[in-house]
Amino acid sequence: MLNDRQEYTGYIKSEAKRLGFLSCGIARAGFLEEEAPRLEKWLNENRHGQMQYMENHFDKRLDPTKLVDGAKSVISLLLNYYPEQTQQEGTYKISKYAYGQDYHFVIKDKLKELLHSIRSTIGEVGGRAFVDSAPVLDKAWAARSGLGWIGKNSNLLSKQAGSFFFIAELIVDLELEYDSPTTDHCGSCTACIDACPTQAIIAPYEVDGSKCISYFTIELKDNIPAEMKGRFDDWAFGCDVCQDVCPWNRFSKPHREPLFNPHPDLLSLTKKDWEEITEETFRAVFKNSAVKRAKFDGLKRNIAFLKQ
């Protein structure tokens, strides 16, 4: 059995590495004072559009001790999803994070295993795993624990790995050694702001979620507004533009997670294939993929909008 904070911390970080996580950082659990007014302003200005769930559990979003009794530490983990190969040129595009199996399930399994290892080695530890499915400000926690800084496109950026990674957390009632935040390295660069097809990055570090292509193609259940016609750059599910142009992503390396590999047919689909996709093909190609969030009808709606 391990018996001090330094040993616990070293063990948790080495286990995270063994499970394939890109990096692991730890911050003291507590109220996110700086984020509170920003989140409130963002919601008041209706930057979340129809994503009503963003309004729920405001206090829990800002304070992990309201999610886990006696929470002491927030363990943030990054998992790389940058693909070795991308879709062919001149076709309808989907976000790289959705190429393989739905990350919620892949990461949840790894987090459960990590929590199990912690309990069997350290002892009775109370905690919960979070993957983008509960009110946790994951980018804020990852930044607090030194895994990167929040860039002008509001994504977490790392000097070593860019931004093509998922963020997940374990919130535990265990005192650990805490990491320090890193500094901002965006400098005077405005590549993401200049490249955004719908001008969703309304100011440095400020994104209007209701103008983002990802919002229109995944979250929006109504028809896509006519004024957006011709501005989607052929993105049918999600959008990677602000990441693709980010200079730090030249350091992205292909992931080593077999479950994130795309269905063999995905990368070769032409525009014609997408336009004629049947429900059967949709189910086969996107069997366990995040693309299922848009549903078959949603994907058809998006493609019809791009085609006009």
From TrEMBL:
What does the entry list as the binding residues for [4Fe-4S] cluster 2?
C196, C212, C239, C242
Q: Which residues bind cob(II)alamin?
A: R61, D132, N153, L156, I167, S214, C239, D240
Transmembrane annotation, as ranges: none
GO terms (BP aspect) = tRNA queuosine(34) biosynthetic process
- Cofactor(s), names only, from the UniProt record: [4Fe-4S] cluster; cob(II)alamin
UniProt keyword annotation of Iron present? yes
InterPro entries noted in UniProt: 4Fe4S_Fe-S-bd, 4Fe4S_Fe_S_CS, QueG, QueG_DUF1730
4Fe-4S ferredoxin-type domain residues are 174-206
Q: Which enzyme class, named as a word?
A: oxidoreductase
Q: Where does [4Fe-4S] cluster 1 bind?
A: C186, C189, C192, C246
Q: Which key words tag this protein in UniProt?
A: 4Fe-4S, Cobalamin, Cobalt, Cytoplasm, Iron, Iron-sulfur, Metal-binding, Oxidoreductase, Queuosine biosynthesis, tRNA processing
| Localization of this protein | Cytoplasm
Reaction catalysed?
A: epoxyqueuosine(34) in tRNA + AH2 = queuosine(34) in tRNA + A + H2O
What's noted on cofactor binding?
A: Binds 2 [4Fe-4S] clusters per monomer.
User: In the Enzyme Commission scheme, what number(s) does this protein have?
Assistant: 1.17.99.6
Q: Write out the catalytic residues in the record.
A: D132
Q: What is its main location?
A: cytoplasm
State the source organism's domain of life: Bacteria
Q: What positions does the entry give for tRNA binding? A: K221
What pathway does the UniProt record associate with this protein?
A: tRNA modification; tRNA-queuosine biosynthesis
Question: What GO cellular component entries does it have?
Answer: cytoplasm
Question: PANTHER family from the xrefs?
Answer: EPOXYQUEUOSINE REDUCTASE (PTHR30002:SF4)
Q: What does this protein do?
A: Catalyzes the conversion of epoxyqueuosine (oQ) to queuosine (Q), which is a hypermodified base found in the wobble positions of tRNA(Asp), tRNA(Asn), tRNA(His) and tRNA(Tyr).
UniProt similarity note: Belongs to the QueG family.
**Known partners and oligomeric status:** Monomer.
Name the UniProt record assigns to this protein: Epoxyqueuosine reductase
